[in-house]
What we know:
The structure holds two protein chains of two kinds. By secondary structure, chain A is mostly helical.
Amino acid sequence: xxxxLWVIVPYLCLTTFVVGHVWRYRxxxxxxxxxxxxxxxxxxxxxxxxxxxxxMLGVVGGHIIGLLVPRSWTETVGVDDHLYHLVAVIGxxxxxxxxxxxMTILIxxxxxxxxxxxxxxxxxxxxxxxxxxxxxxxxxxxxxGSIFSLGGEYNYREGVSVWYRxxxxxxxxxxxxxxxxxxxxxxxxxxxGLFALWPFxxxxxxxxxxxxxxxxxxxxxxSREDQMGSRPTRRGWDRVGx
Amino acid sequence: MRVMAQMAMVMNLDKCIGCHTCSVTCKQAWTNRxxxxxxxxxxxxxxxxxGYPRTYEDQETWQGGWVRKPNGRLALKAGxxxxxxxxIFSNPKLPSINDYYxxxxxxxxxLLNSPQSxxxxxxxxxxxxxxxxxxxxxxxNWDDDLGGSQEHAxxxxxxxxxEDKVKLEFEQTFMFxxxxxxxxCLNPSxxxxxxxxxxYKRAEDGIVLVDQDRCxxxxxCVSGCPYKKVYFNHKTGKAEKCTFxxxxxxxxxxxxxxxxxxxxxxxxxxxxYDADKVLEAASIEDEHQLYDAQRACFLDPEDPDxxxxxxxxxxxxxxxxxxxxxxxxxxxxxxEVALPLHPEYRTMPMVWYIPPLSPVVDVIKETGEDAEDxxxxxxxxxxxxxxxxxxANLFTAGDTVPVDRVLRKxxxxxxxxxxxxxxxxxxxxxxQAVGMTGESMYEMFxxxxxxxxxxxxxxxxxxxxxxxxxxxxATECSVDFDAAGSYYDQALLGEGAGYPTPxxxxxxxxxxxxxxxxxxxxxxxxxxxxxxxxxLNWDGRGTxxxxxxxxxDKQSGDR
Lengths: 242, 559
């Protein structure tokens, strides 16, 4: 069972995530968009969207530090467990609450503003369920596990994080995860479900974060030569000499 | 010198009758789709009026276009790259659907299915956004012909500084129409605002386009464009804008709005310009200088140096030839009667306007004086400061001198040509008074008043060696377009997922057939014109063949 849950399922989800994005990008560049609904409603979005997105940026950053940076590294730079814990819990709480508050506003908006609700696809709803569950479970782990120590002490940096790194290194150690508290297990499973859904939802817009804007020239010139017609050249139909 | 070619347009506002044919045909061609109901690539505004979207010219509110910073550099008015990215999750300057209008349809089914009753059934307006009943309170053209102008036109942004005077003379107010399309600017702030780099200026002809495959729907272009001519398709989540009908331009035929213009007021042609000078010209300090600065970017196609440089830059010979015959070049730089719309936005717009003399002429006519007399016209231009100041707010950042000059030329042409038309000796002091010769004034008259089709539109087609790639020719197999998209449930990934369909549904051959079908017996799409009856010629007595079904006795034999 632990092999199924902590080896097979995660790798399946990861594969779907990677292959799905490649497929979506090749098949559906046109559909690769944020699908903004700002035109319909502005007031709630102005509040909820930045709150959610900046919160999520914090959450993602926290996960990168928590999951990918081994304990030994932080100890080498002189950050002891207590300090690390303090920063992680406070930062995690702030970011998590921002994301949660933002998401609540956005879901409320989506449900109550007619045009926004009718522009919501079934895929959106499924994705919201997974995303919301992941955020709530993550918050629960932070509050219940780290602050009130419900269900005993658990240092995820010795368990979940190690498992995650072993998973990414293709030498999975499922036992580490099997021993983790149920909150962490559920959080991980829901998150992997979200990863599997990711390429088929509007979440793809995460990967088009326009950082290139900072460096490119303001005005883009493009020659008709670069792309002929309204669609890219298909494989096997390249022009002579290219 | 970096020579580039720009496809540009000039509109002669004196001839616009506000019929909206351009808007309607454009909409039929490009934006009659879900998600673009409120999108008007071409719209016609009554001025003074609010424009579309409402008060779009108020850049203190909308923050479109460029500003010149104290250090002399240009910056986007809405803020630079970092600020844009920080605001990316919720664009603070995006017009809401209410600033355009909530598109609607009518519940026609009620009319058909209504049971018998004492009262007429009513088709209620239904919102195309929410699908619910709605009150129609605004539309793209609500203040047409100064409708409700006490309330609306008074809020016209361009009346700043002259509000009191306009109110004072409201009983004798003036009015004209302003058709607008995308300006296809030399320094487009929409392209500069796009975080994804999806909006580009085509190197060949300067047409500004949105790459639908690269647009990610960040909406910064909508707020970046001071003319509000980039729209957000709320179904596909992509930005869309006027394409200058590039599939048509590529094969040498004018845009839909121009082709169908009843007043024949649009001119299309090439302008050669020096791309290295654009930024410098756009950053000039005095707003009043922007008009001249932009004209200084344009290169004289008759100059041999320019021709050589253009050839070296890869501009084909027939394009240089077309630039020499370009009506746009003539109206802008030879006769100097065309002015840019809002040069103060510093985007270097490339759709220019010949300001209307009609507000002036109308006033003279009403007083019973001769509206074609030079003295009367010149005096009226001097006296009627309000229309002139208003036009200056639109076309020259408030500088009345160029507007005066243009109106005088138009007035001079009017009285000069009257002498000729009445068979009198032309008075050469009239053109001289506005710095023209009799000959050039006559040429200008030909271009403005006669306005032959092939003089209005000088459009060199794109080159044959690139022909298979041009949209309108559609020589590629049409079968492989719908193959991919239809197999998948489109709702899964959202509206419009899959490969794009080509923009040109009809091909060039069909188009050519239709345009020459006066002399052809064939109908486009098959069938023959023989057997058709022109009802206008029918006197109501005879029975032309094909007008009625065969007589009953003949039919009974068949039964």
